[in-house]
TrEMBL record, chain A:
Residues 152-225 form the PEP-utilising enzyme mobile domain. GO terms for molecular function: kinase activity; metal ion binding; phosphoenolpyruvate-protein phosphotransferase activity. It comes from the Archaea. It is found in: Cytoplasm. It catalyses: L-histidyl-[protein] + phosphoenolpyruvate = N(pros)-phospho-L-histidyl-[protein] + pyruvate. GO terms for cellular component: cytoplasm. Residues 5-126 form the Phosphotransferase system enzyme I N-terminal domain. Phosphoenolpyruvate binds at residues 285, 321, 445-446, 456. General (non sugar-specific) component of the phosphoenolpyruvate-dependent sugar phosphotransferase system (sugar PTS). This major carbohydrate active-transport system catalyzes the phosphorylation of incoming sugar substrates concomitantly with their translocation across the cell membrane. Enzyme I transfers the phosphoryl group from phosphoenolpyruvate (PEP) to the phosphoryl carrier protein (HPr). This is Phosphoenolpyruvate-protein phosphotransferase. It is an enzyme of class 2 (transferase).
UniProtKB/TrEMBL annotation, chain B:
One of its GO terms (biological process) is phosphoenolpyruvate-dependent sugar phosphotransferase system. Keywords: Cytoplasm, Phosphotransferase system, Plasmid. Its main location: cytoplasm. PROSITE patterns: PTS_HPR_DOM, PTS_HPR_HIS. This is HPr family phosphocarrier protein. The lineage of its organism: Archaea, Methanobacteriati, Methanobacteriota, Stenosarchaea group, Halobacteria. It holds the Pfam family PTS-HPr. GO terms for cellular component: cytoplasm. It is found in: Cytoplasm. NCBIfam families: PTS-HPr_Halo, PTS_HPr_family.
Length: 559, 88
């Protein structure tokens, strides 16, 4: 066992298997005489540029979506250089003198990289951009296969001399459990991307990292800024303790218990949620059971899945959301209408009640059967509820399924029931809805979309899709107050719950439970333990009186 | 036709002034090259952000701009004005 130290980039830890990544392209040994003639070499260069332009445009969009608009700008610089006339001029001149396109690109870029490397400050960053772009063009020109970073096996710790932003943006945070690099800095683009993707990362480890071979088991301890090679069990536990994975429920400094649960979208996500110390599941999506198949899942198949979720959390609550689909997600065995505006159409509970009662009843039967098993406590929540009548109809169906199972002598129980608050209609009727159920769960992504009338996917309105607008925060505040007035507990599931700065605000607004992707649970739990709920309440009061998003950001000290 | 201009912006020929310089060069038809005001220095394409920032020209240094074409005079005037304007 050996420990290497570097600079911590993401305060999370992960244990996995080392895979080295070398983005450099092996250039074929060629001589000038192998050039196929200036015209075809130039055509090869033009083609490589076209491919690179497409790749960069796609990566810019993906980065804007996954990481942020500002971060995506790094690809703008690459695009600007791609068509720079000076580069075209130099490459053309070299090709005219008999070089292959590959040689011409390598020579041209190398001379600029060298030039910028010798300069200071932001010019050094341009050198990194140019190296990245050069490697991309050479890869395309030589038809080289790169390790596909988007499809690395689960449990990979990616190790490299350095990583470019485009490399990092491709990583799948579900598969990559850690990142370690020889060079790099805390504020590099790659570091920012790793943090946004919640991948444990330590950079600037130095040359000692080169001695770590492919296949080695390492612990990337993003809290201590260390990489532990062949961690033994004792050390593993010690390291885990330093990253504050808390298996037990946490409370604020002054003792208010806050449940920190996981959002889970597939059965495979259960284990990571347990490992991350989730207090249960706040949102178990069931769409994966219904999508990508020819026939609906049977009642027994569903029952087994819900039981598996309950067994993963034998001592805590698992909240299952009933099927939430609509015209935006095709299901072959359901005859869903093509809708002009699927997000305002037949989706969520509307679809379950109006179009597919049989499908909904089968899901309820499976859920009531699973609720009877001792493991964990089951909760069931209903998506996209907009009227009290809808909820009454759902409750009638639950009662009728309960009766049927009773008559058939099937073991079952009625679980805790709740309503998703995702529409302004649900916010305004929160009191009446909460009187009929045990809990409310605020889906902040959809609530923001419907309150602001701004879809997440539409680029021109993404700025409006932000829960920090006064309208959204007041909707959350109202929901919590009305829920509590009816003795229901209120949770939040959605990206907002996992952001430390916003979480304090949610605790201040009185939210009882926060549910988020498993990866952020350790840091949220650590943050909750540091909150003073009286101070959080004062902060929430100050935020609720703010008139603009700018004033709110100001009060939250979000620059 | 050529002209020697002393660079006024604090950042020199970096970042925004360089970007504005390149954009201005792109508004003209004539061949435009720029480089240190030194007889032996190599001149680079004034329409290339890469080449222009690569010169590393700092505030207070003098550059030489060479223009060849119909609108050469207008181009030199416009570029001189970019280089002699304090950044706002």
């Amino acid at each position: 066992m050996r420990t290497l130290t570097g600079i911590s980039v993401t305060p999370l830890s992960g244990v996995g298997t080392v895979q080295w990544y070398d983005p450099a392209v092996e250039l074929p040994e060629t001589t000038d005489s192998e050039a196929a003639g200036p015209e075809s070499e130039l055509a090869a260069f033009e083609h490589a540029r076209d491919v690179a332009r497409e790749e960069l445009t796609a990566e810019r969009e993906r980065t804007a979506k996954r990481i942020g608009e500002a971060e995506a700008e790094v690809f703008e610089a690459h695009l600007e250089f791609l068509d720079d006339p000076q580069i075209t001029e130099d490459v053309t001149a070299a090709v005219d003198e008999g070089s292959t396109a590959t040689q011409a690109v390598a020579e041209t870029f190398d001379s600029y990289v060298e030039q910028f490397e010798g300069m200071e400050g932001r010019f050094a960053e341009r050198a990194a951009d140019l190296r990245d772009l050069r490697d991309r063009l050479l890869r395309i020109l030589t038809d080289s296969e790169h390790t596909d970073l988007s499809t690395l096996p689960e449990g990979t710790v990616l190790v490299a001399e350095d990583l470019t932003p485009s490399d990092t943006a491709r990583l799948d945070p579900d598969a990559v459990v850690g990142l370690a690099t020889v060079g790099g800095g805390r504020t590099s683009h790659s570091a920012i991307f790793a943090r946004s993707l919640a991948i444990p990362a330590v950079v600037d480890i130095g040359n000692a990292l080169f001695d770590v071979d492919d296949g080695t088991t390492v612990l990337v301890d993003g809290e201590a800024g260390a990489v532990v090679i062949d961690p033994d069990t004792g050390h593993d536990q010690a390291a885990t303790a330093t990253v504050e994975i808390k298996p037990d429920p946490v409370s604020t400094v002054d003792g208010r218990a806050i449940e920190v649960a996981a959002n889970v979208g597939t059965i495979e996500e259960l284990t990571p949620a347990v490992e991350r110390g989730a207090d249960g599941i706040g949102l178990f999506r069931t769409e994966f059971l219904f999508l990508d198949r020819e026939t609906p899942p049977t009642e027994d198949e569903q029952y087994e899945t819900y039981r598996a979720a309950l067994e993963a959390f034998p001592d805590s609550r698992v909240i299952v959301r009933t099927l939430d689909v609509g015209g935006d997600k095709p299901i072959s065995y359901l005859d869903l209408p093509d809708e002009e505006n699927p997000f305002l159409g037949a989706r969520g509970i509307r679809l379950s009640l109006e179009e597919n009662t049989a499908l909904f009843e089968a899901q309820l039967r499976a859920l009531l059967r699973a609720a009877a098993d001792g493991a964990g406590d089951l909760g069931v929540m209903f998506p996209m509820v907009t009227t009290v009548a809808e909820l009454d109809r759902v409750l009638e169906l639950v009662a009728s399924v309960d009766n049927d199972l009773e008559r058939e002598d099937v073991t079952h129980a009625v679980p805790e029931l709740g309503v998703m608050v995702e529409t302004p209609a649900a916010v305004f009727c929160a009191h009446e809805l909460a009187e009929r159920v045990e809990f409310l769960s605020i889906g902040t992504n959809d609530l923001t979309q419907y309150v602001m009338a701004a879809s997440r996917g539409t680029e021109t309105v993404t700025d409006l899709h932000d829960p920090l607008y006064p309208a959204v925060l007041r909707a959350i505040d109202r929901t919590v107050r009305e829920g509590h007035r009816s003795d229901a507990w209120v949770g939040v599931c959605g990206e907002m719950a996992g952001e430390p700065e916003l979480m304090t605000l949610l605790v201040g607004l009185g939210v009882d439970e926060l549910s988020m992707s498993a990866v952020t649970i350790p840091s949220v739990k650590a943050a909750v333990a540091g909150i003073d709920s009286e101070a959080a309440r004062a902060l929430a009061r100050a935020v609720l009186t703010a008139e603009t998003r700018a004033a709110i950001r100001d009060r939250l000290q979000l620059g | 036709m050529d002209r020697a201009v002393t660079v006024v912006p604090e950042a020199g020929l970096h970042a925004r002034p360089a970007s504005r310089f390149v954009q201005t060069a792109n508004e003209f038809e004539c061949d435009l090259r720029v480089g240190p005001a030194d007889e032996s220095a190599t001149l680079v394409n004034a329409r290339s952000m890469l080449a222009v920032t690569g010169l590393g020209v700092e505030h207070g240094e003098t550059v030489s701009i060479v223009a060849d074409g119909d609108d050469a005079e207008a181009a030199l005037n416009a570029l001189e004005s970019v280089l002699s304007t304090e950044e706002v």
